[in-house]
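Bug #2210: token dump truncated for Aspartokinase?
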Amino acid sequence: ECVFKFGGSSLASAERIDYVAHLIKDQIQLGYKPRAVICSAMGKTTNQLLLAGEYALEGKVCVEEIRTLHTNTMNIFNFSEIDFTRIAVNELLIECEQMLTGVKMIQELSPKSLDQLVSYGERCSVRIMAARLNQIGIPAQSFDAWELGIITDSQFGDAKLLPSYESKIQNAFKEKINDVNTVAIVTGFIGHDSNGKITTLGRGGSDLTATAIGAALKLDEIQVWKDVDGILSTDPRIVSNAIPLDQISFEEASELAYFGAQVLHPIAMQPAMKYNVPVRVKNSYNPSAIGTIIRAEKSMSQRLVTAITYKKGVTVLDICSTQMLGAYGFLAKVFHEFEKHKLSVDVLASSEVSVSLTLDTKQDTNMIDSLMEALSDVSNVIRKDNYSIITLIADITQSSEVLAIAFRVFSKENIQVEMMSQGASKVNISFIIKSSQLEKAIIQLHSCYF
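Reproduced locally. Full output below:
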């Protein structure tokens, strides 16, 4: 028994929905029993809905592109005019248009309204997917996630699951799905708060829907279908012969995701980690590939480095104390200012009188300037832009060997390491280098470790 999850690119058109429906049918024939299939919105629908919201604030109501995509898909599947699915999807699209007209009138789009607006994408896609599965002989029923127990707090735009979600999911599946052979087709990314208002789960939201259901129902596996053969040893856009990994631990996967790899978001892995339900990342374009399994234990294969990931375009701050503050006084002051300015740090290296750290470039530049100003009375602050972080997810018990190889590469390629840090997690070693040398470093390191 398992959960399947498909993202927007897997469902971008009628052709892709049909392909995924047949893929689900094939998996069932191979002996898998999907209790639920989590679907994202079709293709770029979520972005188009966000854009439609912006247009509405400018006085234009425009849902034509979204309507055309869904109507054409239903036409290709020959849903009749009185078909329940066609009526339901048309009602959702009309409701969406009416909502945008309201936004145009009152000239306001609150986070609460925005969550409702983007929900229409998922709600349309699950209805079409369930109908297509029924057409090809797989009994399926569509659900909005809240009907199956996805209940959240009221933090619109970035809602968190309430602790009661597990029992709510268990009860909802018992009550609402009478036949265990019926596949529940469930909206990813969205939920309800306790007042019945629609919320969205923030980044990695659809993956979180899948892991929450898989963990609550204590299923054998959660399968996340993407467009690559599982999790790769590095970014295939930089290293064309990156290799798929057979198995990684939840901890390794979290570090990979944090440092930029397109894996599951760390928050999405929490329910699976709690009950040690394995998560398998598979390729919808190559279903026979075994994929990568993420579970509590690391792979048995004896490799020094599991994967190489990176974060481009980070800012380095070197902060040197100018006061005779004790180490704790200086560090306390530094971290207090970071908290005050709401700036989060990626990598850090410190001594008694100096701290070097990296900031993600997505953070507010004015805040960084303001922070530097605030620290100037106790320290000299030097800011350096256009750096990148290379992170090795590695076996730290052999860190001396890992580091020896890395520095041999850096020395040979004339790559200057600005700073380095060995994570407290004991699975990552990070190097900060100039962005202009990033690709060369990844290519050379990959050729040595793999």
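Output looks complete on our side. Residues 242 and 271 are 29 Å apart (CA to CA). Marking as cannot-reproduce; reopen if the truncation happens again.
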